[in-house]
Fold:
Amino acid sequence: MLATFASTIRAQDNFFYIYLCFGQSNMVGQGAIEPQDCDIEDGVLSMSAVDGPDGRKVGEWRKAVPPLCRANTGLSPVDYFLRVLRKNHPLNVRLGVVHVAIDGCGIDLFDKDACQEYVANVKQDWMKNEIDAYDGNPYQRLVDMARKAQKEGVIRGILLHQGETDAYNDRWLEKVKKIYNDLMADLNLDPAKVPLIAGEAVGKDQNGVCAHANPTINRLPEVLPNSYVVSSEGCEAGPDHLHFTAQGYRTLGMRYGIKMLQAMGFKELGEGMELEASPSVAQPTVTPIDVDASVDDKGVMHAVATKPITKIEYVSFSGNTLKTINMNGETKADVDLNLFPEEKHLVIVFHDKDGASTSIDVTR
Structure:
């Protein structure tokens, strides 16, 4: 039935709202997909930007059932962004998204003038494989899919979640501005009618290893008109403190949706929608584990924890667990950072027996 429905969308429909979504791993989506996440209303579609073993085909509409980015990815903020718009938009509009994201990538991967140099310097095989899925140019794939979608609907906004890798200075702000302006030009869009919504990295309240990117991300509206930022405060983080849990993505996605509706002129919509859609769940209190660490000239991290360590994980910026070391409850550990020389960014996660964890971000 979906194929029949999608095939009937031919002429441009001004009530078919399309949103472009791009970024790195938190935009890809790392959340566990649960049955409640797959109950999607009719009229909420995703245009596949890659082929996949689950039957998705490049350039074809499918019902927006997660995962949206690629097969074998996870729940992302886009999933609940769509739910908020579908439930709360005053008009009976259909919704579509084009979703292109690469785990661990820097902002240059989406700059059409810097992309090829960036790709030439990628060392990680998993990142090369993800980029190859977009024929080596994620920006161009985003534009190609957007042009195809424009034949049937109207692009009404852009969602960005990127910055954990490099949102630490004015260069990132200028890059995002350039990419946005390139999209406006390449797609013949009016910037006054196409807001960009960016999301914060995992916040300090969740011991986010990239929370220090958020001050830069929050300055985006200073340099880019019609851009807005949604807070990640209170959005639950996973054990790597780099990615959100499924509930964290749900909350963040709802905030994207609320902010987009407000940017489109529906000012009366407020945070109450989020509280209604995402009731808080009491979490058990666990004493946190704190770790003091230093790195010697041989690339070994010497760590001292406040509680006995039961497990250490090496995690890539894509969220992939590269190695797990089980410990015997020591409070001291030596962690060899040279085990994965191709990884420019590593997250070292320390766990204790109570389920508490803390992470240390290593940039080389």
Remarks:
- Residues 235 and 248 are 4 Å apart (CA to CA).
